[in-house]
Amino acid sequence: MESWKIITYNVAVYMFLFEIRPLETYLTAYLTGPDGNVSLSEVANSMESIRSYSALTATVIMLAVSEYFYKPAIIAYTVCSFIAYILMSGSPSLIHLRVGVAGIGATSNAYILGFSYLYSQISDRKQYQKATSIISVSLQLGIFCGSVLSQLIVSMTGGIYSILPYFNASAMFLAVICACLFPTKKKHSFQMENVLNEKTRLLENGLKNKMEIHEKKIVIMKSIKYNTAVENTFKGLLFDFKASYSNTVVLKRSIWYIISMGSHFQIITNMNVLYTYIVNNPGNHDVLLNGYAEATISLCGAVGAYLIGKVQLDWIYYGDAVIAICSSIMGILMMSCYYHDHLFLIYLSYIVYGIVSQMVFVSNFSEIAKRLKNQCYSLVYGVNLFGSLLISTFMTIFFVQMNFLDISIPGRVPLLVFQFLFIGGLDVSLGIGFLFLSYLKMTKPR
C-alpha cells in the first residue's frame, strides 16, 4: 500500500473513533432532563456560551503548537475530551456539567490538528484531495455511528440519557490508544534558511530599506544570531504567516472559511436547541428523532465528501464558482429554518445542508493545503479556525449575552430562530461575493 494511504487510514480510524459521541445528539435533552436538571434558557445562554468561549481559548493554545508536537497535542486533546465526558456521567453537579461542557467545546476542533498532521506526513500534494475526502468520510461515519447508537439507546430505554456519557468516554479512550500509535513527526525548527528563502511580493513590499540582497542577508543573519530561540521562532511564524496569506487562493479561501465556518459553528450549537424548542411549542406533536436525523445528516455528508474526492476539476478556474453555488444553497437552506414549524422540514433542510457543506469544506481544505509549505498547516488552519470562532463568539455575544437588536418577532419564533435567518443571509452574501469573483476570472482568457 502507498505510504500516503497508510497514514491517511491511520488518521481516518482516529477521526472515526473521536466522532463517536452519542451524547452530542441529545446534549440539550440530557442537560435539561433529570440528570442535568438545567433549564432550557440556561442551556441556550450560559452553557452554549461556555462552550463557545472554551473553543476559542483552546484554539489560541493550538496556534502555539508546532509541527513537532502534533502527536502529543492530539493525545492531550483527546484525553481532555475523555475527562469531560467522565465528569458529565453519573449524577453530575452544575459545576461538573459546566466544566464538562467547557471540555467538549475545547476539544471540538481537534480535527484541525488531525488534518494538519495528515498533510505534514504526505509528501505528494496531488493526493491531498483524496486524503481529505477519506478523512472527511471517516469523520462523518463516526458521527453516523454515534447518532444511530444514541437513538437506539434512547429508544430502548424509553428516553433515558444517563448512559450516553459513558459511551462517549469509551470512544475517547479508544481514540487515545489509536493516537498513541501515530508515527512521530520529525522535529521542525525555524532555521536560518527558512527566513532567507522567503521571496514573496508581500514580504518584499514590507522592506523599507534599499539594501542589496546580500546586505539584507547579512543583517538577517546577525539578527538571528543575537535573537533568542523564542524570538527566532516568532519571526519564523510571522514570515510563514505572511508568505502563506500572500497567495491569493489561500487568502480568499481562508476568508470564506472564517466566515462560513463561524456560521457553521452557530448552526451546530443552536440546532439541537432549536429541535427541543420546536417540540415544546404549544400544539406541536412532533417527536424528537435527533439520533436518526443526525445519522442521516452525517451519512449524506459522508457521501458528499466521498463524491467531491472523485471530482476531477480545474479548481483554479472553477473553484470560485463552486464555492459561490454551494454557499448560496447552504444559506437558503438555513434561512428556510426560520419559516419551518415542524421538525421534519428542519431535519430535511439540515440533511441537504450537510451534503453541500461537506463537499465545499473538503474542496476548501485540500486547495489551501496544496499551496502551503510543510510547516504552515497548523498555523494557517489554526488562524482560520481562530477567526471563525471569533465570529461565532461575536454572534453569541450579540444575540445571546447582549440580546443585540432586542428582537422578538411577533407571531414567529423568538430570537434563537432569527439567528438562522441571519446566518443564512451571511452564507448567501458569501455566495454572491464569490460569484462576482468567478465572473471576473471567467471573463479573462485562461
TrEMBL record:
Family statement = Belongs to the reduced folate carrier (RFC) transporter (TC 2.A.48) family.
The residue ranges crossing the membrane are 68-87, 99-119, 131-154, 160-182, 255-275, 287-308, 315-338, 344-365, 377-400, 420-440
Q: Which InterPro entries match?
A: Folate_carrier, MFS_trans_sf
Q: Which organism is it from?
A: Acyrthosiphon pisum
Q: Gene3D superfamilies, from UniProt?
A: MFS general substrate transporter like domains
Q: GO CC: one term?
A: plasma membrane
| PANTHER family in alphabetical order | FOLATE TRANSPORTER, IP11787P-RELATED
Q: Which UniProt keywords apply?
A: Membrane, Transmembrane, Transmembrane helix
Q: Which domain of life is it from?
A: Eukaryota
Q: Name one Pfam family in it.
A: Folate_carrier
Q: Which molecular function terms from Gene Ontology are attached?
A: vitamin transmembrane transporter activity
Protein name as catalogued? Uncharacterized protein
